[in-house]
Specification:
single chain, 5-stranded parallel β-sheet, two-stranded antiparallel ribbon, binds flavin mononucleotide
Length: 234
């Protein structure tokens, strides 16, 4: 059995009275999840919509609690870190993480950044040792696969694209993914939403197809490696 962690972050709902308002990134992600669940119904599934229910921003008290040794924390400090503890436990439990994100102002929504700020935490998801020279931070988690689903109004944010220099969403997610323990990343992008033309229609259709194809591929290969482990353990 694997654990699939699904984080949506658009402030738009997946389904609205006016379908033109439906979140594109959530619907692409949903295609991935539906296919995965069909192939592996026994898997654990954890879902958070941080766009609709954003995690709290971190505060000075939060930082103070983080840097207080665990056995010295007051009940109030434990309470301050309770959400962070829960979110980190969800990431730790996950084998596969799907993050869907709209592009807002050329980067991720503040709500998704708030989720990362709660999770990237010293001695929980990374440790710090100056003996490592210029790279003192080291991730404490590993072995996870990340699927990044994005939707943008403009286009050409990829490497070599006409807006590569403004594309801060996927590069930021890639940088932070290290602290989720991610070794393997897949990207699915829908573009052109603001143009509302044929390019947009094709881009969304391709992204949904890719989400379904990737979910089949990964869920079946997860099945195969699980069966191999079961055989080895007999
Ligand atoms: C507040 C806001 C900021 C946006 N900023 C950008 C942007 O910087 N670049 C871009 O290409 N599209 C931008 N867009 C368009 C969204 O990326 C696009 O509508 C996308 O489909 C939203 O994701 P969703 O459909 O999952 O809600 C922005 C939209 C909103 C609402």
């Amino acid at each position: 059995m694997s654990t699939l962690l699904h984080i949506d972050s658009s402030v738009r709902a997946a389904t609205n009275p006016n379908p033109d308002h439906d979140s594109i990134s959530k619907n692409i992600a949903r295609r991935f999840i539906d296919t995965w669940k069909q192939n592996r119904p026994e898997d654990e599934y954890i879902y958070r919509d941080v766009g609709v229910s954003p995690p709290a921003f971190i505060t000075q008290d939060w930082i103070g609690a983080v840097f207080t040794p665990e056995d010295k924390r007051t009940p109030a400090q434990q309470e301050t870190l309770a959400l962070s503890d829960t979110l980190i436990a969800e990431v730790s439990a996950a084998d596969v993480i799907l993050i869907s994100s709209p592009m807002y102002n050329y980067g991720m929504p503040a709500q998704l950044k708030a989720w990362f700020d709660q999770i990237v935490r010293i001695d929980k998801t990374f440790d710090f040792d100056l003996a490592r020279g210029d790279f003192p931070l080291q991730s404490l988690l590993s072995g996870k696969t990340l699927i990044i689903v994005t939707s943008s109004g403009e286009f050409g944010f990829e490497k070599g694209g006409i807006r590569e220099a403004s594309g801060h969403l996927v590069p930021h997610l890639r940088t932070l993914s290290k602290y989720l323990g991610v070794d393997t990343i897949y990207e699915i992008a829908a573009e052109y939403q603001e143009f509302g033309d044929e390019r947009h229609r094709i881009s969304v259709a391709n992204a949904k197809d890719r989400a379904e194809g990737l979910a089949s591929e990964l869920s079946l290969s997860a099945q195969a490696s699980l069966s191999k482990t079961e055989v080895t353990n007999v």
